[in-house]
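Dear Dr. H.,

I hope your travels went smoothly. While you were away I took the liberty of generating a structure for the chain from your last submission, since the lab meeting agenda had it listed for discussion. I wanted you to have the full record in hand beforehand rather than looking at slides cold. The sequence, exactly as received, is reproduced here:
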Amino acid sequence: MAPLFLLFSLPFAFAGHDYGQALSKSILFFEAQRSGYLPRNQRITWRANSGLNDGKASGVDLVGGYYDAGDNVKFGLPMAFTVTMMSWSIIEYGKQLAANGELRHAMEAVKWGTDYFIKAHPQPYVLYGEVGDGNSDHYCWQRPEDMTTDRRAYKIDPSNPGSDLAGETAAAMAAASIVFRRSNPAYSRELLRHAYQLFDFADKYRGKYDGSITVAQKYYGSVSGYNDELLWAAAWLYQASNNEFYLNYLGKNGDSMGGTGWAMSEFGWDVKYAGVQTLVAKFLMQGKAGQHAPVFERYHQKAEYFMCSLVGKGSRNIQKTPGGLIFRQRWNNMQFVTSASFLATVYSDYLTSSRGSLKCSAGNVAPSQLLSFAKSQVDYLLGDNPRATSYMVGYGNNYPRQVHHRGSSIVSVKVNPKFVACRQGYANWYTRKASDPNVLTGAVVGGPDAYDNFADERDNYEQTEPATYNNAPLLGILARLASGDGRYKQLLPVAVPAPNPVIAKPKPAPKPKLTPTHASSSNPITIEQKMTSSWNDRGNTYYRYSTVVTNKSYKTLKDLKLSISKLYGPIWGLTKSGNSYGFPKWLSSLPAGKSLEFVYIHSASPADVSVSSYNLA
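The corresponding predicted structure, in token form, is as follows:
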């Protein structure tokens, strides 16, 4: 296949939000969800070890893994989908994650999940799919470190099948095997071996997992059945192995299993068809369909139906709030926002790589429009919405403070180790009308209703509960938006870089002028600039500069006006007004001792930045 690639021009305005900061925070959330023995490099320090006897009563070690949301249950189906989507994010945008210093953290987050899945799959046809149960867990409000609830383990086997659970776990293992192929080949092969076995188990012994693990029905019931997971797993196994068996499986079963028939309006932990259709469309664009081209073209048509519905150009479009957010359901709607936006992001890059466009019933749509749609959804999530609320905890100034999350809402066991009993947590902590004692940094909560309304209340679980599968697709989108290099080759063979690559310094690289203005009684504002990355494109060397403005006074800084000259590229994090720059639109003032950061890219030495005017109040 001829090399296909895309180049986005640098002035494309990914302005307004610090996507790199949001990316870092979104990955951090997974550390708050860890179960088991926490590692030495654990960054969410208010958490401690938990669930250390998981699986013991069943004679199997099930210590580890993730709690799915605000409770302390380990649900296998959403955990596997979380790992699949984190892996897909790394597969598509690993270089961008590395450029933002987050590839290692993202890979650690994937491995925390896959290490658990290896334990949960002790035999080819046995998979443990849940530890604990929602009924007993939800009766209590306890820190994970204090759990007194039933920690029974539930499994699927040939007599009690679960093709959807085994299929999704196979997809997770296969996708993760690609992630570790270069940095840890032995581990990658082990993951692929488990993926092969799990797919065989899922396909050979068919049945819905919630018919076997009935305690999951109320919480993660498999409404869509298992055909979508079988196709999803086959697609990931083909991408991981290049084994024609899985390509043929997609071709032979696409019609009968609904891959070519279902026109979708959602994508998430239960319904995978839109994801399958997107992956198969990629295979078609790569020229891999072979004899299955007619079937793959039908997958492709359904993928485009989904994309057209997102941008409002389809025959039946996805509902949106007045503020422009995708709206699927009141309970944790944000999961559908992030997953659909991820598909739009990768599909945009697939189209541009193949020099194609999206063909909708209301006309053709350029790939850039699809990417702009995904950006609009992320921007809404980060605060560009009618409430000016960030739905990512810890990002921006106005974010949820009373998150429906046991660990976040109860004082850390490290601060007060006194045992919190089952019902005591409800009486003393759940009903508190105060901010959480522990900030659940990076968590994406359920979000607003159909009319952009949101109530920041702990008992409003439909809107204030976070979930791992809300965050997982965001890793890829945020890495994509945060990246300044603009070079993507999404249809070429996947090559995830090793974490923390050494970035070569450009030969002519002018040293950044670190010329801070020192605070004094007459000038209480400091400005410090540094070059954070550089790259070459078409013979030109581009530099990304970070500039930090700090209020060194003892008063609040208002009406800041900056003068910036010798700027020859795009700038993010400030609002331009005439010939000067002011606070970004989500910030009206800068408290004493606080800083704001803005970044810009151009192919020259640092721009000249100075303070034109300001007020202190």
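Two observations you may find useful: The first helix runs from residue 19 to 32. The two ends are 63 Å apart (CA to CA).

With kind regards,
E. W.
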